[in-house]
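Example for tutorial group B:
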C-alpha cells in the first residue's frame, strides 16, 4: 500500500460489517465486532464523589498546599519597603490563585480530559484524534471503532473548526511544533518532579532553626538531602497508598494553616481584607514599577502544583477534584496567605521566615512535624507524576525504552521506573546541595510552573477552536485574560534566568534532546520499513516456494510496522528457508486514547492464500495502559486468534447475504448471490473453521517461538556529520543501554530467536 492509498484509508469512514468496505489493507473483522464496552464515569453518586474528593486531597494538593512555606519569602527576598506592598502582593496572590487555579483549571481545563485522564499528553491525544497530526503513518480507520475513541465529527456549520483542522493536517511545521510543545511540557513537568522535593523539603526543614539556634544552613541542607535520599529509596515499594493513607495528614495540614490564618487575621490586622480590591495591584505596580514586575516571579509560586490537578485526574473524577478544591484547598490556602500577611503587617522584619514565625508558640512543633510530612507527600506526588508522564511518552514512541514496574494491581497509573528514579534523586541532591536556599530554587521553580501552564493554555485554545467549537468571543476573552496573565508571569520569571532560572530549561533541553533523538530516528526507521515493506504478492511468492520447509509450531514475528510485512522478514527467509505451520506477524500500536478495552485490543487479518496459515496481528494500547498483562501473553494471543477465526466464519457469510461480495484482500464489493451459494459457502466455511482451529491448537501445543526483528540503523553513506552523530552515536547509545524489546512481554530466552539486519537511513 503506497502513501496515497494510506491517505485514502485514513480518510475513509470506518463501517460495521454488512456495509460496504473499501480498504485494501484493513483488519476489519475484529474491528467490526460491536463492543459492549463503554467509558464509564468515575463516581456517579455523591457518596462516591465525596470519597474520591477526600482521596484526592492526599495526591493532588500537597504541592499547592505547601506553597505558603516559601511564597512570601521568595516575593520579598530583599525585605519589605512599604506596608502597602504586602497588601498589593496579597492581592496578586489572591487573584492569581482565583483566576489561574480556580477559574482556568478547576472549571475549564479539567473538562479537556481524555476519557478521564489529564495532562499534556491528554491534550495532545485529543488533538491527534480530531486531526491527522501524528508523524507516523499508522492511522487505521478501524481505530475509530474503539469505544474510548469517542470521536465527534466536526460540525460543518462552523467552518473555522474544519479550517484549523486542515491547516494543522497540511502543515508539517505545525505537526512538529505540536510535538515539540508536547515534549517541552512533558520535560517541564519532569522538572517539577526534581524541584518540588527540593524546595518543599528544604522549606519545611528550615523551620527547625527556630527551636535549635545552633543549627546552621549547612546542617539544614544535609538533613534535607538525607530526607530526599530516603524518599527516593522507598519509591520501589509503590505509591498506590499515597492518597489513601496520607490524605488525613494533608487534610490536617489544611485545617491547621487555615485555622492559624484565621487566628492571625483576627489578632494582628484584619485590614488585609483590602487586598480583595484589585486596585491594590495597580497601586503596587505604580509604587514599585520594575521591582513589582520582578517580584511576580515569587508570587507565581503560590500556584505551584496546579498542573497536578489536571495531570492526576485519571485517578479521580472532574467533580471530585472540583469539590475538594473548592471546599478544602482553596479556602485553606487563601486563609493562610491572609493570615501571614496580617502577621507581617505588624512584624515587617520577619518576612524571610514568615510561615514559622506566624505560628502560635504551642503549635510550633506539631506544625513543624506536619509540615515535613506534607512536604514529603507533596514530593511523592510529583515524583509519581513524573513516572506516569514518562510512561505515556514511552507508549507514544517519544522516550527510550526503560523498565516500567507497575507497583499496584488496583491502580494502573502507579508505576516505578528505576533508572529515572535514580537520575531524579541525583538531580534533587545536586540542586539542594548546590543552591542551599529556597529563593534560588524558587527562581528555577517559577519558570517550570509558568511554562507548563502557558503550554496548557495554548493547547486548550486549539481544543476550543477545533473540538469544543466554542464561541469566538469566549475564546478571545480567555486569551485576553488568562493567557495575558501567564505571559506577564513568564516574562517575569525569565528575568531571573541567570539567578537559577536556567535550571529547568537546562533540564528540559537535556530531556528534550534525548526524547527528540529517539522519536526522530524511530520515525525514520518506521518510514524506511513502511516504504520497503513486502507486498502481498511477494509474500505469497516467498511462502509458496517448493523448497520452503514447514515445521510444526507457532511462530510470532515481532515488528514495529503496523501496515504490511516488514522487509526484515525477507532477510530471515533468505537465511532460514523454513517456516512454522502457523505464522503471526505481530506489532504493538499506541492509540491517541488513554485506554483501550481488552476486548478491543487485538486486530487480526489473514494473509492470502489462507491455506498457509499466515496472520497479521496489531495489538493496540492506550498511553496509560499496562503492557505487562496478568494473563500470559502467549495464551491470550492464541485465544484471540481462535476467536478471530470463528468470527471470520460467522461474519463473511452474513455480509454476503446482505448483498456484498468479498473480493481480493478482504475488500467488499457489490454483487448478487443466490441462497444456494450462501448455503454452500456457510458449509465450506464451517468445515474450514474446524480445520483452522485444529491447526492453531496443534501448532501452539507443538511449541511457540518468538522471532524478534532486531534492526540496527546507521546513517547512509554520504550523510552529514550531524546525521551521523544523531543516528550512529546518540540513538544507538540509547538503544544499547536501555530496555530490550523482548522484556515487554517477558519472552523466555530459550524460545526466542533474533533476526538482525542493518538499515541505512
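The residue assignment follows.
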Amino acid at each position: 500500500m503506497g502513501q496515497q492509498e494510506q491517505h485514502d484509508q485514513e480518510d475513509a469512514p470506518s463501517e460495521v460489517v454488512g456495509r460496504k468496505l473499501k480498504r485494501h489493507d484493513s483488519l476489519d473483522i475484529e474491528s467490526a465486532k460491536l463492543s459492549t464496552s463503554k467509558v464509564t464515569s468515575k463516581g456517579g453518586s455523591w457518596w462516591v464523589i465525596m470519597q474520591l474528593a477526600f482521596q484526592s486531597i492526599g495526591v493532588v494538593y500537597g504541592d499547592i498546599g505547601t506553597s505558603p512555606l516559601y511564597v512570601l519569602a521568595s516575593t520579598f527576598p530583599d525585605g519589605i519597603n512599604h506596608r502597602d506592598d504586602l497588601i498589593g502582593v496579597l492581592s496578586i496572590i489572591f487573584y492569581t490563585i482565583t483566576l489561574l487555579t480556580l477559574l482556568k483549571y478547576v472549571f475549564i481545563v479539567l473538562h479537556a480530559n481524555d476519557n478521564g485522564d489529564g495532562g499534556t499528553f491528554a491534550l495532545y491525544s485529543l488533538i491527534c484524534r480530531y486531526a491527522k497530526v501524528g508523524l507516523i503513518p499508522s492511522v487505521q480507520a478501524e481505530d475509530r471503532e474503539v469505544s474510548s475513541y469517542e470521536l465527534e465529527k466536526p460540525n460543518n456549520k462552523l467552518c473555522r473548526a474544519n479550517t484549523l483542522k486542515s491547516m494543522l493536517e497540511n502543515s508539517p511545521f505545525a505537526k512538529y511544533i505540536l510535538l515539540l510543545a508536547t515534549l517541552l511540557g512533558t520535560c517541564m513537568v519532569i522538572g517539577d518532579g526534581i524541584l518540588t522535593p527540593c524546595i518543599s523539603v528544604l522549606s519545611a526543614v528550615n523551620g527547625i532553626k527556630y527551636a535549635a539556634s545552633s543549627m546552621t544552613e549547612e546542617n539544614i541542607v544535609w538533613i534535607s538531602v538525607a530526607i530526599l535520599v530516603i524518599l527516593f529509596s522507598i519509591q520501589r515499594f509503590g505509591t498506590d497508598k499515597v492518597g489513601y493513607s496520607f490524605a488525613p495528614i494533608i487534610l490536617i495540614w489544611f485545617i491547621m494553616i487555615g485555622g492559624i490564618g484565621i487566628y492571625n487575621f483576627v489578632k494582628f490586622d484584619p485590614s488585609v481584607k483590602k487586598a480583595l480590591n484589585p486596585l491594590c495591584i495597580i497601586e503596587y505596580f505604580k509604587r514599585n514599577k520594575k521591582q513589582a514586575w520582578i517580584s511576580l516571579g515569587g508570587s507565581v509560586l503560590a500556584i505551584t502544583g496546579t498542573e497536578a490537578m489536571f495531570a492526576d485526574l485519571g485517578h479521580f473524577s472532574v467533580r471530585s477534584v472540583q469539590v475538594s478544591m473548592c471546599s478544602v484547598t482553596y479556602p485553606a490556602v487563601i486563609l493562610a496567605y491572609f493570615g501571614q500577611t496580617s502577621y507581617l503587617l505588624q512584624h515587617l522584619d520577619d518576612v524571610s521566615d514568615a510561615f514559622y514565625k506566624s505560628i502560635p508558640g504551642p503549635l510550633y512543633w506539631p506544625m513543624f512535624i506536619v509540615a515535613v510530612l506534607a512536604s514529603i507527600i507533596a514530593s511523592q506526588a510529583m515524583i509519581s507524576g513524573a513516572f506516569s508522564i514518562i510512561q505515556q511518552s514511552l507508549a507514544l514512541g517519544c522516550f527510550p525504552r526503560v523498565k516500567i514496574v507497575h507497583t499496584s494491581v488496583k491502580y494502573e497509573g502507579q508505576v516505578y521506573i528505576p533508572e529515572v528514579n535514580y537520575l531524579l534523586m541525583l538531580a534533587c541532591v545536586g540542586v539542594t546541595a548546590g543552591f542551599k536556599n529556597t529563593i534560588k530554587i524558587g527562581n528555577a521553580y517559577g519558570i517550570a510552573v509558568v511554562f507548563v501552564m502557558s503550554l496548557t493554555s495554548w493547547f486548550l485554545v486549539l481544543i476550543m477552536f477545533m473540538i469544543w467549537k466554542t464561541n469566538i468571543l469566549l475564546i478571545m476573552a480567555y486569551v485576553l485574560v488568562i493567557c495575558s496573565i501567564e505571559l506577564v508571569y513568564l516574562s517575569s520569571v525569565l528575568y531571573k534566568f541567570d539567578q537559577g532560572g536556567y535550571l529547568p530549561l537546562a533540564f528540559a533541553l537535556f530531556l528534550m534532546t534525548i526524547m527528540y533523538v529517539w522519536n526522530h530516528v524511530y520515525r525514520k526507521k518506521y518510514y524506511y520499513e513502511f516504504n520497503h515493506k513486502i507486498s502481498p504478492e511477494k509474500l505469497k511468492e516467498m511462502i509458496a516456494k517448493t523448497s520452503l520447509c514447514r515445521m510444526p509450531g507457532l511462530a510470532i514475528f515481532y515488528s514495529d510496522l503496523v501496515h504490511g510485512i516488514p522487509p526484515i522478514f525477507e532477510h530471515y527467509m533468505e537465511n532460514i528457508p523454513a517456516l512454522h505451520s502457523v505464522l503471526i506477524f505481530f506489532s504493538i500500536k499506541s492509540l491517541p486514547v488513554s485506554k483501550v478495552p481488552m476486548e478491543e485490543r487485538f486486530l487480526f487479518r489473514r494473509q492470502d492464500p489462507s491455506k498457509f496459515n499466515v496472520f497479521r496481528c496489531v495489538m493496540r494500547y492506550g498511553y496509560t495502559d499496562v503492557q505487562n498483562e496478568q494473563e500470559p501473553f502467549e495464551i491470550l494471543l492464541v485465544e484471540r486468534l481462535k476467536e478471530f477465526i470463528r468470527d471470520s466464519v460467522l461474519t463473511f457469510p452474513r455480509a454476503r447475504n446482505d448483498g456484498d461480495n468479498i473480493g481480493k484482500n478482504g475488500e467488499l464489493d457489490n454483487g448478487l448471490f443466490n441462497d444456494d451459494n450462501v448455503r454452500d459457502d456457510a458449509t465450506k466455511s464451517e468445515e474450514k473453521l474446524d480445520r483452522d482451529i485444529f491447526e492453531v491448537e496443534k501448532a501452539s501445543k507443538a511449541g511457540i517461538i518468538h522471532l524478534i526483528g532486531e534492526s540496527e540503523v546507521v546513517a547512509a553513506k554520504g550523510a552529514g556529520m550531524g546525521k551521523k552523530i544523531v543516528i550512529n552515536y546518540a540513538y544507538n547509545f540509547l538503544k544499547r543501554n536501555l530496555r530490550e524489546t523482548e522484556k515487554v512481554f517477558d519472552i523466555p530466552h530459550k524460545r526466542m530467536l533474533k533476526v538482525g539486519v542493518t538499515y541505512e537511513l
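Residues 1-26, 28-32, 34-43, 653-673 have pLDDT under 50 and may be disordered. Compare this with the pattern of hydrophobic and polar residues in the output above.
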